[in-house]
Amino acid sequence: MNALRKVLLLADDREAAQRYRHMLCADGHDVRWRGLDLAEAPPAVADGVDTILVVLTSEQWDPIAVLRQLKASQSLARVVIVNRNRTLAAAIEAMREGAADYLCEPCSADDLHAALRRLETALPAAEPSSTCLGDSKGLHDFEGILGRCSAMRDVFALIERIAPADATVLVTGESGTGKEMAVRALHRLSRRRDAPFLGCDCTALAPTLLESELFGHVKGSFSGAIATKKGLFEVADRGSLLLDEVSNLSLETQGKLLRVLETRRIRRVGDTAEHEVDIRLIATTNRNLGEMVKVGEFRADLYYRLNVVPVTLPPLRQRTGDIPLLAMAFLEDFSRQMGLDLTVFTPPAMQQMEVYSWPGNVRELRNIVQRLAVLYGGTQIELDHLPIEVREARRTVSSTELPRTWDEFKSFKRQVIDDLECRFLTAALERCEQNVTHAALAVGMQRPNFHALLRHHGLKPSG
Fold this sequence. Notes:
The chain contains 18 helices and 18 strands. It is α/β, with parallel strands linked by helices. It has four domains: 6-122, Rossmann fold (3-Layer(aba) Sandwich); 152-312, P-loop containing nucleotide triphosphate hydrolases (Rossmann fold, 3-Layer(aba) Sandwich), CATH 3.40.50.300; 317-391, Orthogonal Bundle (Helicase, Ruva Protein, domain 3); 399-456, no CATH class. The strands form six sheets. It has a five-stranded parallel β-sheet with strand order 2-1-3-4-5, with helices on both faces. It has a five-stranded parallel β-sheet with strand order 9-12-15-8-16. Strands 6-7 form a two-stranded antiparallel sheet. A hairpin with an 8-residue loop joins β13 and β14. The radius of gyration is 27 Å and the shape is flat. The termini are far apart. The relative contact order is 0.08.
């Protein structure tokens, strides 16, 4: 059963409002209704509302404009749009602008109830303090992908929304952000979930071999072609095909791929006959294909064919609130595999891991946690155990990376204060030749307080 919600129903039509209000009240939700007028901005959202259902029956309404107005009100409520525009493009644009879900009017009670159920997984649970790291239970696990930050929740909602469609998807993101996991989630949630899912690494093969891998070949078409072979497009028929790092395709192969996407027919290398294929294509890249188009390294027509539905995975440095969750999950996993007693990171160790920028993203975090689990057999990972590049990282922030929410601001503030305290203590010890008593006296602190602060940050006099 759905969790009961306080719903603000905004509708441009009284009859439609009554219909949706009846659907919501039938499930026990607390519903308030307000009318919409084209001549006026959407009404202010009262405190306590956790869901806003916007029902637009007139084509005169622009759902994006309504979304932006609601966003400007600073409400934390999740917004579900019900609109007459049935196109996938409209739904994607609304999701990009912050809509939690997008339904087509008229909407059935079952569809509305399903949308509210999806919100239960999209809404964040209470964020644990990064110092309470003894238990990673309650992790937001979306099809095997861990994450609780708002950026990842938006990615999860978008994947869930577009997975049932057959539109081509382009998944972008830096190396190590989990693009292949997102692709697998798309397949598992699609109508093709019971059909094959195959992948091709576009960086692993020379152009001629890559074409054979994708499209197949006939016997004798080239040296070594001792038998006719189906390509991945044919083997994945009725399923999904992943082109990993599609930016590495040669211009010649790009042209052949474009033709397949346009005709849904492939021709094996050395063959004259064509074979019809039915696949959903999903491509990934860690490069900016738009910039490659500008310099002539990627075909513009293929780019537009691939970029029907873009999904962008954020780098780990933009989701620092997820670092404790991911690190604990990895530590528990490796400890269980190796039969170790490692259970936690100390608060100073975890705080320093949140400071590090993680250029290798989630993959780098996982590899480092595995290294720590192998090297240290105690019950906890301490600050001194961290690799030097993590230990010596300093928190920096640009104007484009400023905290966007109060929780992010508090986390950033804590990190800045911790960094400042560490530098303050280290400098005091250096000035006093690592003598704790003299350093405490010099800075005007009592020795027990100074020593307690050293312990809190995992610092020791080098002497």
